[in-house]
């Protein structure tokens, strides 16, 4: 049995199928192309000009809906036809909507209503007393403000009987006045220039154009209340601005020449030694600020050191 299976396996044929191509017919008539094929071939052969669409830069001043939004709106309107639409009709007039004076005569509505304030209550009392004048008491309670008054208020030169200038009680506040309060601690300084740096009057402004930072009035009052106001006024160095390098004069004030053996006074002024001594023979006061020196002249060591350093720098440069 096994031998038969081996023989059958050896007898199996193995081959590869190759697809045959169509034979070429040389003497066959060429088929004419159809009209559609002819048009397509002509279109391919012809050159066409394609214009590129330039991308428009978005302009913030022009607002419009995109095509996508328009399509979505059209689709939504087609699907739901029961949407409520509102149309507005123009009045065809040139008048501006709102108040005619654009709110110039607007009233202030933060106080009590006009029909409930003290003046309205007083006028109501006058009307009720006028109706009940000469009649018997009907025993009807009309409120605490409407009791029978046997004294009839009269109009005066200050105003009518119901105005706040004649009657007692709170006065009806004016509705067209908007009161603002500002404490001006610096009436001589231009407020526009101080706050904004610009004044419409320019150089012709009669107030001072100064933007310096001063203490406000409430700060001065606070210092005065705490007892710190004008406490250190005797300190001479209170308003002195310290600098990193002290500035020295380059010439003597008396002889107008370079320093020779410079000295310094108590008031921090520099002179030549000979000039200072000659000045002291005539007057003991300083030649610049007229301060009493008492003949005390100290050698100006800082000025001498600076002159020596400048001299050394000049020699090195040469």
UniProtKB/TrEMBL annotation:
Gene3D superfamilies tied to this protein: Zinc finger, CCCH-type, Zinc/RING finger domain, C3HC4 (zinc finger)
Ranges for domain C3H1-type: 184-212
Coiled coil (residue ranges): none
Keywords: Metal-binding, Zinc, Zinc-finger
Key word Metal-binding present: yes
GO biological process, one term: snoRNA splicing
InterPro entries associated with the record: CWC24-like, Znf_CCCH, Znf_CCCH_sf, Znf_RING, Znf_RING/FYVE/PHD, Znf_RING_CS
SMART domains attached to this UniProt entry: RING, ZnF_C3H1
Any one GO CC term of the record: U2-type spliceosomal complex
Name of the featured protein: RING finger protein 113A
């Amino acid at each position: 049995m096994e031998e038969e299976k081996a023989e059958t396996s050896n007898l199996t044929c193995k081959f590869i199928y190759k697809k045959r191509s169509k034979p070429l017919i040389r003497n066959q008539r060429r088929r004419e192309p159809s009209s559609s094929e002819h048009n397509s071939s002509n279109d391919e052969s012809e050159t066409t000009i394609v214009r590129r669409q330039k991308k428009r830069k978005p302009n913030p001043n022009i607002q419009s809906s995109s095509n996508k939004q328009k399509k979505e709106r059209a689709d939504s309107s087609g699907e739901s036809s029961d949407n409520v639409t509102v149309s507005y009709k123009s009045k065809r007039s040139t008048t501006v909507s709102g108040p005619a004076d654009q709110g110039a005569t607007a009233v202030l509505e933060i106080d009590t209503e006009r029909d409930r304030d003290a003046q309205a209550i007083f006028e109501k009392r006058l009307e009720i007393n006028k109706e009940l004048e000469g009649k018997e008491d009907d025993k009807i309670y009309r409120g605490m403000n409407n009791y029978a008054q046997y004294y009839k208020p009269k109009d005066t030169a200050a105003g009518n009987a119901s105005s706040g200038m004649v009657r007692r009680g709170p006065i009806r506040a004016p509705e067209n006045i908007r009161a603002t309060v500002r404490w001006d601690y610096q009436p001589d300084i231009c407020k526009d220039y101080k706050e904004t740096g610009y004044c419409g009057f320019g150089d012709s402004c009669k107030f001072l154009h100064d933007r310096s930072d001063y203490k406000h009035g409430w700060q001065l009052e606070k210092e005065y209340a705490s007892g710190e106001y004008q406490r250190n006024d005797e300190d001479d160095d209170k308003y002195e601005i310290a600098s990193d390098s002290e500035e020295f004069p380059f010439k003597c004030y008396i002889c107008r020449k370079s320093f020779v053996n410079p000295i310094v006074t108590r008031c921090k002024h520099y002179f030549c030694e000979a000039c200072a001594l000659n000045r002291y023979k005539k007057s003991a006061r300083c030649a610049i600020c007229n301060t009493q020196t008492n003949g005390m002249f100290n050698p100006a060591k800082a000025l001498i050191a600076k002159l020596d350093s400048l001299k050394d720098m000049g020699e090195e440069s040469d």
